[in-house]
Structures are given as C-alpha cells and as structure tokens.
Amino acid sequence: MRQLLHIFGPFSIHSFGLFIAAGIMVFSVLFLRDPRRKKIISNEQFFSLLSACILLGFAGGRLLYVFSNWHQLPSFWHLFAVWEGGFSLLGGIMALLVALPFLLKKERLAPFPLLDIVSTYAPLLQSISRIGCFFAGCCYGIARSCVLPEALHPTQLYSAAALFGIFLFLFFWAQTHLKKWGQTTALYLFLMALERFMVDFWRADREFGPLFDAFSIAQIIALIIMIGSSISLIFICTRTREMP
Questions:
Q1: How many angstroms separate the CA atoms of 120 and 172, rounded?
Q2: Is residue 8 part of a domain?
Q3: Which domain range does residue 120 map to?
Q4: What's the pLDDT at 109?
Q5: Which residues contact 74 (CB under 8 A, 6 or more apart)?
Q6: Would 244 be classed as within a structural domain?
Q7: How far apart are CA 219 and CA 128, in angstroms?
Q8: Whole-model pTM?
Q9: Cα–Cα distances in angstroms (integers) from residue 168 to residues 63, 123, 175, 182, 199, in the given order
Q10: Most confident range, picked from 110-114, 138-142, 162-166, 175-179
Q11: Domain annotation covers residue 128
Q12: Which residue of 79, 109, 118, 139 lies most exposed, with the fewest beta carbons within 10 A?
C-alpha cells in the first residue's frame, strides 16, 4: 500500500485511505444536496448514521479480506494490523446490508426511500475508492500476455469506470423512470455485484474456497447478491405500489 504521509509509529496516510475519504466526502455532499433527502432524514441523523456506517463498513471489509486471505497472514495478531492494508469493498457492502435495517429502525427512518438515495450515489463512492486501489497497487490484474508479458490488466480502473457508469445510469435514468420505492436499491445491488463478478476474471488476487475452483469467493458472494437483488426487483415491480 503506497504511503503518502507518515504520522508516527505504524500510522500513516495511504493513497487507498485518502481516496476512500474523498469518496465519502463527495457522497455526503451529493446526498445532502439531493432534493428528496430533506423529507427523509435530517442532517444530524445523516452524520450519526454515516459515522456508524463507516465503522461497520470498515469492519466488514476487513473481515472479508481476512477470511479470503487468512492463509497469508503470518500470525494471529496480523488480523488487526490494518495499517498494513487489507480491505474488501464487497465485505463492507455486505456488512452494511446486514446492519442498515437495524440502524434505520433505531433512527425510525423509512428504509427504502433512504436506501434509494444512498444507492444512487454509492457507486460513485466506490468508483473513487477503486482509483485509490490503483495508486496503492492492490487489487491488481493478471498479465496481458497477448500485449506485453510484464503488463497487467488495470482491473482497479476497469472497476472504477464500470462503477462510474453505474452511477451515471442510476442518476440520470433511474430517478426519472423507476416509480417504486426499492427499485433503485435492488438495481444498484445487481449492477454492483455484476461488475465485481465480471472484473474478477481479470484479477490476479482471486481467492478460491474449498468447494469451487471456477469462481472466486468474491464471485460466489456477488452471484448470491445478484440472485437476491433480482428476486427483490421482480417482487417490487409486480407486488408493490408506485411512489406517491
């Protein structure tokens, strides 16, 4: 992981963390300026929820990374050596999917209207974070043998471009064409998982479980999210009423 500024001891500012912070800032500004937001959540509730989501997302991202790369850790204590890098964006999203319903219930917030706004801007946050992966040198791709043997597929940039395209699609198309709460959320989850499933074929850091050797652990998780979001989208389209 590329170090930009050393603070003290093991603590430094790294390129990946810097781009995640930039993504969160851009996400927050766009979310707070969204005209739908004021009717759903206050500024105070947003920042309280954002703080909890950052902690949960970080914990989930670290847990999935450790689960996928446990055999590469030299000792048990390296589970907590977060300053050495090791984070999965997909793991962070999974943690939020599990925890958000409870957080929203605690704050007495309507889940689907809020999640639809979050899902509109979440791909942009992820896209900016992937640029951080590129500068950090993680999430690297396989060799492009047909071009230059030493050149690697810039899978970080593939993901960043795909996620930015998803953001543009949801921002300019979904807001005007989707008429039911939850549709944007389900569509975002499907497209996000599809992006990870496809780009993973070109990643050189794929980790495989004991039962599958065709798809990586991340691809299996992405497939589960794709199936679940597809079922949810069909249910919403056929069984729920349009927004008031």
A1: 10
A2: yes
A3: 3-239
A4: 92
A5: none
A6: no
A7: 21
A8: 0.86
A9: 30, 9, 11, 18, 19
A10: 162-166
A11: yes
A12: 79
Return the DSSP state at 143: B
Do 92 and 60 meet the contact criterion of CB atoms below 8 Å apart? yes
* CA distance linking residue 123 with residue 162, whole number of Å: 9
d(C-alpha 227, C-alpha 193), whole Å: 10
CA distance linking residue 9 with residue 12, whole number of Å:
8
The answer to whether 144 touches 85, Cβ cutoff 8 Å, is: no
- How many domains, the chain? 1
Residue pair 131/19 in contact (Cβ under 8 Å)? The answer is: yes
> Is 79 domain-assigned?
yes
Token pair, residue 137, equals 């040198």
All residues at 6 or more sequence positions from 140 whose CB lies less than 8 Å from its CB, including other chains: 152, 155, 156, 203, 204, 205
Residues 108-142 have pLDDT tens digits of: 998 999 999 999 999 999 999 999 888 877 888 88
DSSP 83: G
Three-state DSSP class for residue 10 = coil
